[in-house]
Design brief:
The chain is about 10% helix and about 35% strand. It is mainly beta.
């Protein structure tokens, strides 16, 4: 079969498969939403689970959802990986506080959408976005999708193969650049996790210039195996600390801003990202649960169910492509989660048809 015909046939087959999955999902989504009322958590951390909270126009489809963020007005931004064979489909969706679709953009990162954060800079809000797979770059955008700047692999770090800042080959290796997410510093700079590539964290200054690199691949203190997400923890009395979701090592690490290791918590399976509100950290775990970390270090697991986890991970995670098997009030693969200003939580899951859930705080 000629390559052009093969690519076209493969694309149509892929689209057909996802259409069937989306159709199946839409029917159970309505049922799951109607059955809202399932509460997870304990004590003062109890949440009503509302799956498939936002609704898309018919011309768009949910794809593999990756990250979610909320701006100061309560608008919710969702990024999905997307499919390269749909270059005109937006990779970022925006919803109002009631879940109504507002706009879509980000076609340039379709097929590689990953990290997403909202940052307030002197009263103006911006999106910081990572694109991985064949894209290999990160961008700063306005809230309507206009690109402010675009940056590629920091070659001055010495971490990357020659030409990696111009390469578009889909390769995962320690000398390749596959960025995942951000954390923001009080001095105007930011940190960037190269989670799927170098397994390091890069620091940039307030003018968006590369400064230094933190960590290296490994299992020791201050080393990483897929540092997928990160945040700045300001809850302590001393200097702020970097919190790193060290996913493949199954742990969360706290580091000083220079990379010095402070402590590690191993009570995780595959921690994926970090967010904070007041004295609470929020850590979605790709293995079917979400964890709250209180200031004293106490962990509160939302959706914890060992038997359900076995179902989720068996047969090479086949559950992620089988919406009919999902259970209301249970998570499959939480890839990101973030707080709304009122304490509600939004969850994005790494599943074939995408899923965004709202956890409405009830206590």
């Amino acid at each position: 079969m000629k390559r052009r015909r093969f690519v076209k046939t493969s694309a149509l087959t892929s689209l057909s498969t996802f259409s069937i999955l989306a159709s199946n999902k839409s029917s159970i989504a309505a049922e799951a939403t109607q059955r809202a009322g399932i509460v997870v958590g304990e004590g003062e951390h109890r949440y009503e689970v509302i799956h498939d909270w936002p609704m898309l126009p018919a011309k768009y489809t949910w794809q593999i959802t990756h990250n979610v963020a909320v701006d100061r007005d309560g608008f919710v931004y969702v990024i999905h990986e997307g499919q390269l064979e749909q270059p005109d489909h937006p990779a970022i969706f925006v919803f109002d506080p009631e879940g109504k679709f507002v706009r879509g953009f980000g076609q340039s990162i379709q097929g590689g959408g990953h990290g997403l954060e909202v940052r307030d800079e002197d009263g103006e809000q911006f999106l910081y976005v990572t694109a991985y797979l064949t894209h290999k770059y990160f961008v700063k955008m306005t809230l309507t999708g206009e690109i402010v700047w675009e940056k590629h692999a920091p070659m001055e770090s010495g971490n990357y193969a020659p030409g990696e800042d111009k390469d578009h080959e889909r390769v995962f290796a320690r000398d390749r650049f596959q960025p995942t997410n951000f954390a923001f510093l009080d001095d105007g700079g930011f940190l960037l996790a190269d989670g799927y590539g170098g397994h390091v964290i890069h620091r940039y200054d307030k003018d968006d210039n590369y400064v230094s690199t933190i960590g290296k691949p490994g299992k020791g203190d201050g080393e990483f195996s897929l540092p997928h997400g990160l945040w700045i923890d300001k809850r302590g009395e001393g200097e702020p600390l970097i919190v790193v979701a060290d996913r493949s090592n199954g742990r969360v690490q706290w580091l000083k801003l220079d990379g010095t290791h402070v402590r590690t918590d191993n009570d995780f399976f595959m921690p994926a990202n970090v967010d904070a509100l007041g004295d609470l950290l929020l850590i979605p775990d790709l293995s079917a649960r979400i964890t709250l970390v209180e200031k004293d270090g106490k962990l509160v697991h939302l959706g914890e169910d060992a038997e359900w986890r076995k179902e989720v991970v068996k047969d090479n995670k086949a559950m992620r492509s089988n919406p009919a098997g999902w259970k209301p009030g249970k998570f499959v693969h939480p890839h990101d989660a973030c707080f709304a200003p009122n304490g509600d939580i939004y969850v994005a899951e790494w599943v074939a048809t995408g899923r965004i859930s709202k956890l409405r705080k009830v206590s």
